[in-house]
Write a structure and sequence with these properties.
five-stranded parallel sheet, binds magnesium ion, binds threonylcarbamoyladenylate, alpha/beta, 20% strand
Length: 339
């Protein structure tokens, strides 16, 4: 299959919407990461998404809508708290897990009777949902297990020849995937995946916000999984990634010692630190928002330059930094060291 590269011009969006209406898979920009979109109600279209990604069948997709009023086209029951959260955070990077309607096929929800729903803020994503006239199921547009794509070129790298088209909408502003929450009671929610919408932001609307333990810890054998995505290897580049907690001086001493032993190491550090060591470095920002924006792109870049072993400066696991930390411990296969 030839993968068409489309721009965000009105004419190209019409082509993309037509492809989506006809059961094809299209890579689309959102404010978080690029998504691999298909008609959420068409089981054949959704099957093509799973095949292109190589995604396990029990890992459900998020369904994207363009208006709050479409919630009831996807969810069979929408509690008052869901409307309050939607009014506050949509359009934007928050996904709500709700009971699904029967016309959302089981393949879309990974066999669960719930479905993840979000209304993206990216104008191209919203235009395409509206023009296609159907809710769009869209996981991140990477090959399963690999870092998520934040540029059209990343999607092309992973999906060339496997999907009908990619719409180039520039670099993603947020850079990490949406915050995923389940609604537990009328005044409590649980964060299953941290994102740009933080625990503190949610607490302004909901009195009780719990963090699922799997956000920061590896699941143990037999432990119940609240979100299927938690149990799979994720966000990993080809390079061996080690996450390092501690101060700069101790970090620099450790990577320099590794380097002088003849191990070809790279370091992924915060802006400004690259001048303070002779070890080859890439930087990924000066604050949590920049780190979120750049993390996936830098992990991909390390593979492009052939890095085999990468030591990464750990962000503080708070605010948006929790989302970055959560992606990095998985990229590192939970190999975290303290210096
Ligand atoms: O920002 C995002 O959310 C991006 C863009 C494209 O919208 N999408 C995204 O989708 O990250 P994906 O498929 O890569 O991640 C969805 C996560 C998975 O970990 C999945 O297990 C979880 O959400 N999920 C989806 N539906 C669920 C459900 N019904 N119950 C529990 N977890 C669910
Ligand atoms: Mg993903």
């Amino acid at each position: 299959m030839e993968t068409k590269l489309l721009s965000d011009s009105a004419g190209d969006l019409l082509i993309a919407a037509e492809l989506l209406k006809n059961g094809n898979v299209v890579g689309i920009p959102t404010e978080t990461v690029y998504g691999l979109a298909a008609d959420a109600r068409d089981p054949d279209a959704v099957r093509r998404v799973f095949m292109a990604k190589g995604r396990p069948a029990d890992n459900p997709l998020i369904v994207h809508i363009a208006e709050i009023s479409q919630l009831e086209e996807v969810a069979s029951w929408v509690p008052e708290l869901a409307y309050m959260l939607a009014k506050q955070f949509w359009p934007g990077p928050l996904t709500l897990i709700l009971p699904k309607r029967d016309d959302i096929p089981a393949i879309t929800s990974g066999g669960l009777d719930t479905v993840g729903i979000r209304m993206p803020s990216h104008p191209v994503a919203r235009a395409l949902i509206q023009m296609a006239g159907v809710p769009l199921a869209a996981p991140s547009a990477n090959l399963s297990g690999y870092p998520s794509p934040t540029k059209a070129s990343h999607v092309l790298r992973d999906m060339q020849g496997k999907i009908a088209a990619i719409v180039d909408g520039g670099s993603c502003e947020v850079g990490v995937e949406s915050t995923v929450i389940s609604i537990e009671t009328e005044n409590s929610v649980r964060i299953l995946r941290p994102g740009y919408v933080t625990k503190e932001m949610l607490e302004e609307i909901v009195p009780n916000v719990a963090l699922d333990p799997a956000i920061l810890h590896q699941l143990q054998e037999g432990q119940a999984v609240r979100s299927p995505g938690m149990k799979y290897r994720h966000y990993s580049p080809k390079a061996h990634v080690v996450l390092v907690e501690g101060e700069w001086e101790a970090f620099a001493a450790m990577v320099e010692a590794q380097n002088s032993m003849g191990n070809a190491v790279y370091a992924l550090v915060f802006d400004g630190e690259e001048h303070k060591t002779t070890v080859p470095c890439l930087t990924y920002g000066a604050n949590a928002q920049e780190e979120a924006q750049q993390i996936f792109s830098k992990l991909r870049e390390l593979d492009d330059i052939g890095a085999c072993l990468v030591y990464v400066r750990a962000p503080k696991p708070e605010g948006v930094g929790l989302a970055v930390y959560n992606r990095l411990i998985r990229a590192a296969g939970f190999e975290v060291i303290q210096v």
